[in-house]
Amino acid sequence: MYPCSMKAAELEVIGASWAPHKSTQPILHPTSFRVCAGRVLGVVGPNGAGKSTLLRLLYRFHKPHSGQVMVDGQDIWSMNARAAAKRIAAVLQEQASAFGLTVREIIELGRTPHRSGFATGRVGDAQVVERVLSSLNLQALADRDFRTLSGGERQRVMVARALAQEPQVLILDEPTNHLDVRHQLEVVSLIRSLGLTIVVSLHDLNMANGLCDDVLVLRDGHPQGFGPPQALLTDRLVSDTFRVDARREQLVPSGTPHFSFTLPH
């Protein structure tokens, strides 16, 4: 488990909605849920369901048009951006070119919220970076140019940068997208080991079944259900949400639920 200096926090969303302009149709309609500290929430739904919009509300990129996003009972918009960045970190699908920065330098960027003014470093920053490098087994890559890494290695580095913020809540937007099977498994194993409150958007329902403590299902910007995946993800809900014929089966001998899909007749 990642030795985070701060404990995981409870995340609560209360009637949060968002639209590009207040007069237009919402992309995300009022949505409410609560993630207990240290649990993993999966956000699932078809393309255009509002998953990325919800995540942008959670990491304070968009301000809700209605409702609130609370971390341990405090509205994140009652904090300044620096204070929020000390509590919430995000790993997005888009990875910057990094302009020739090394892995260590990328991870050091995660310490920015803890610095004042133009300070380039602070007592303890180096120790945090080294701890993160060690926890994610990145020491051997520390001096490599970020651009030379594989997709899976880059994803680990971006998670490491987020962890260097020492957040209580971690937001992950499609963290296994474009990765091969091995690197997908590595990322899933990493997520399980962190011990933080995590919200992760996923396309793969079978991965959500195995990874997440709770799942939020979105369709056309509307929440369809929230709860443990084994109870929530019924054949009917999945079929209606994704407009397919879905069937959940139990894999033998593990008993792990597995969905199969066909197009409706």
Automatic annotation (TrEMBL):
Keyword set, alphabetical order: ATP-binding, Nucleotide-binding, Transport
PROSITE patterns listed in its UniProt record: ABC_TRANSPORTER_1, ABC_TRANSPORTER_2
Residue intervals of the ABC transporter domain: 11-245
Pfam families given in the database record: ABC_tran
Entries under InterPro entries matching the protein: AAA+_ATPase, ABC_transporter-like_ATP-bd, ABC_transporter-like_CS, P-loop_NTPase
Record GO terms (molecular function): ATP binding; ATP hydrolysis activity
UniProt feature coiled coil, ranges: none
Family note: Belongs to the ABC transporter superfamily.
Protein name per UniProt: Fe uptake system permease
